[in-house]
From TrEMBL:
Domain ABC transporter: from-to ranges: 5-235
The keyword Ligase appears for this protein: no
Family as reported in the entry's similarity comment: Belongs to the ABC transporter superfamily.
Pfam families (alphabetical): ABC_tran (PF00005)
Domain of life: Bacteria
Organism: Chelativorans composti
Keyword Transmembrane helix applies: no
Molecular-function annotations in GO: ATP binding
UniProt entry keywords in alphabetical sequence: ATP-binding, Nucleotide-binding
Identification of the protein by name: ABC transporter ATP-binding protein
Length: 320
């Protein structure tokens, strides 16, 4: 097994504020690795350190076999980065932005031309290559940023909150292109997000809170190890729901007349009592979610959801 990225005991602080409190992990080649955590957890600090923009107070990083703290340039050659805030030049065309990035990385003309065609095709921006970026939508800009980050053929792509500020449909597009990169280009992709729905398809999810990693594993593994099972109870009206909310510890309302109850406080016999006769429509068991993993590890909910109304993992579907 090849570790393309290894981080050891990374620590960083801003004055008295500790942003990273001893973070260690390994990322295998070809993996999609999602760093999930609430705002202020330390995700941006970690990305900045990994892409050699910021030095940690202590710790070590090896990227593609290079000690990134001693030889940042060597490490950097292997990395493409998409930052949280837009960094493309909106006075230039899409092609000019890519051309400029290729020049900075010293790509010869022929190689540059071929690579520009390749990355524009990947993010489906060929038709707009000669348009000025100022006229692009938020999603098109983000796609161009992904294309630009790939110009110098890095092995690793870092993306800091790649979908923040985009609408639901555009977020799906971005994930479609990132999935394609992983499938077709075998790239190692590290993304940070505070949208729990967006990490369901990652190979490895690393949950970070208050500057420390609190759990790491595949989404299925994390759910199995830390998730809670719930029972969804559909009732005939709000009044019955209220009764259940008062009776079962940790119960939460759902929709108009349903309620979810954690497995440990669920009591099937109580629901068969005369009090509830004819008032319960259906009882279903719900599998653990990553939301419940976060809740059981931190005692808090990761409330800032991408789209509270959406069911599912928020990916796939839209192509362009
Ligand atoms: N330049 C800075 N000066 C002082 N404190 C900082 C600075 N940058 C980050 N912090 C603090 O360090 C902690 C980690 O911040 P960081 O930006 O790495 O978290 P994050 O998980 O990326 O959150 P967000 O998604 O909001 O950017 C936070 O408490 C933040 O307030």
């Amino acid at each position: 097994m090849t570790h393309l990225i290894s981080a050891r005991d990374l620590r960083a602080s801003y004055g008295a504020k500790v942003a990273l409190n001893g973070v260690s992990f390994d990322i295998e080649e070809g993996t999609s690795f999602a760093l999930l955590g609430p705002n202020g957890a330390g995700k941006t600090t970690l990305i900045n350190i990994l892409c050699t923009l910021q030095r940690p107070d202590s710790g070590g990083i090896v990227i593609a076999g290079h000690d990134a703290l001693r030889y940042p340039r060597r490490a950097r050659r292997n990395i493409g980065v998409v930052f949280q805030t837009s960094s493309v030049d909106d006075r230039l065309t899409a092609r000019e932005n890519l051309e400029f990035h290729g020049l900075v990385h010293g790509l010869p003309r022929r190689k540059r031309e071929a690579r520009i065609r390749q990355v524009l095709e990947l993010v489906a921006l060929e038709e707009w290559e000669d348009d000025v970026v100022r006229s692009f939508s938020g999603g098109m800009r983000r796609r161009l940023e992904i294309a630009r980050a790939l110009m110098h053929e890095p092995k690793i792509l870092f993306l800091d909150e790649p979908t923040v500020g985009l609408d639901a449909q555009t977020r799906q597009q971005i994930w479609y292109y990132l999935d394609r990169l992983r499938r077709e280009w075998s790239l190692t992709v590290l993304t940070t997000t505070h949208y729990i729905e967006e990490v369901e398809d990652a190979d490895v999810v690393c949950i970070i809170d208050h500057g420390s990693i609190i759990a790491q594993g595949s989404p299925a593994g994390l759910k199995k190890q830390h998730g809670r099972r719930w029972h969804q109870i559909d009732t005939i009206d709000r009044a019955v729901r209220q009764l259940i909310l008062e009776r079962f510890a940790g119960a939460q309302p759902l929709g108009v007349s349903s309620v979810v109850v954690p497995e440990e406080s669920f009591d099937a016999r109580a629901l068969k009592s005369p009090e509830f006769e004819g008032k319960i429509l259906e009882i279903r068991q719900r599998e653990p979610t990553l939301e419940s993993v976060f809740l059981s590890l931190t005692g808090r909910e990761l409330r800032d959801r991408a789209d509270p109304g959406r069911i599912g993992n928020g990916r796939g579907g839209e192509r362009r």
